[in-house]
Amino acid sequence: MAGVRAEQRERTRAVLLEVSRRLFASRGYAAVGLAELVQAAGVTKGALYHHFEGGKVDLFRAVLTGVHEKVGAVVAAAAEAETDPWDQLLAGCRAFLVAATDPAVRRIMLVDGPAVLGWSEWRAMDEAQSASHLAEALAMLVAAGVIAAQPVAPLARLLSGAMNEAALWLAETDDPNALDDVTSALFRMLGALR
Predict the structure, then answer these.
(1) Full DSSP string of the chain
(2) 55-66, pLDDT tens digit by residue?
């Protein structure tokens, strides 16, 4: 009996996350009410608060964590497909730009994330999911002498900020060449570090 209950709880949590992700992505956090979330998920408010004690904000935090993890996995897979550390950096950066142009990712991760959770919490989540990997890649390139010796933390933040801004712009533009143009500009910028 306990196994069945645990399975039901997990199913309820998964439904809440999926429905919320879809609604937050399509309309944004502010436009989605708690009553709408529970109705769309087919659960009670009590069930939502059981899984997400802080209500809508905690639910959003969990959705954002899932989006960060998904983007991180895409970036890691692209980087790991390359053998050369420099090519891994380039592939990971490009994969981030492509992933972040998905309208759902853009709205949840880059627009609503900082607005809902505040810059400090959003930054900590970003650091845990992707910025730390970027810093590790840069540190490895510095250690190998591919990039000139320099403090990695500010460099990682500059590149992360540039890519986040580029992803926001890419998601808004109608220019069919925008991704190629941004990627070329980013690669030229990175090339200057070699």
Answers:
(1) -HHHHHHHHHHHHHHHHHHHHHHHHHH-GGG--HHHHHHHHT--HHHHHHH-TTTHHHHHHHHHHHHHHHHHHHHHHHHHT-SSHHHHHHHHHHHHHHHHTSHHHIIIIIIIHHHHH-HHHHHHHHIIIIIHHHHHHHHHHHHTTSS-S--HHHHHHHHHHHHHHHHHHHHH---TTHHHHHHHHHHHHHHTT-
(2) 999 999 999 999
